[in-house]
Amino acid sequence: MHVFVTGASGWIGSAVIPELLDAGHRVTGLARSQASADALTAAGVTPLAGSLDDLDSLRAGAAASDGVIHLGFKHDFSDMAGAGRTERAAVAALGDTLAGSDRPLLFAAGVAGLTPGRAVTENDASPAVGPDAPRGGGENFAFEYASRGVRPVALRFAPTVHGEGDHGFISTIAGVARDRGVSGYVGDGANRWAAVNRADAARLVRLALEQAEAGAIVHAVGEEGISTREIAAAIGDALSVPTESVAPDAAADHFGWIGMFFGFDMSASSALTQERYGWTPTHPGLREDLAAGYYTRGA
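Structure tokens predicted for 3-beta hydroxysteroid dehydrogenase:
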């Protein structure tokens, strides 16, 4: 297949690219800068200049492809509503272009807030509906294209897609611990975070492209849930700083923007995904990556 990928030079996308190429697929990647274009070219990808705000570039990439993997997202936590509007517009541009072709449209989603108090499964529908919902209600909106001759597939990633070089949530939390001199968790720290190794997630994306049916929900989850207290303790041990509880009403002051997420329970199962696609996570888990010092080395 000739696959158009947004977010191709990002943390997850740059791992998905070799999976696709090794499987014999050709890839065009959206590049919003010359540095991104150069990185994609070096990886064997054809760059397409554009951005998530440049809907014409999204339409052009989708029109020339046999399918789309939409991994790009504006991670602007100061304007989540704006990020949601951008996401919804991007999905519309891609979906409208693919309409009537039965081509796949895989898109990144998450597990946060779907089923408070228990692990999310692939049978749980997202409650986010409408343009003002988180991520612009993009999951349910994308699924509407199944009736228009598109094969939409939700890629629900664990809140931490970890590995050496990760600069996401866990890296941010470790940075707060370094700066504060204490590794904190919110409340009793019993809330759990699902996790997946970046390499395992990349392989699953490729399998979903090749196998998933229209309307499928795929869970890129290697570990169902690790308590945030255990995560904080591992970071504290690595940094040789104490581990302490932070009151929920002080989380924003202590952690900054990440505080609103670190207190959430974001556990999820991937049992159905593993059964349906023959996917078994084989790479190190989050505990192993924390112990390896990927998030605290040089601090």
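The first strand starts at residue 2 and ends at 6.
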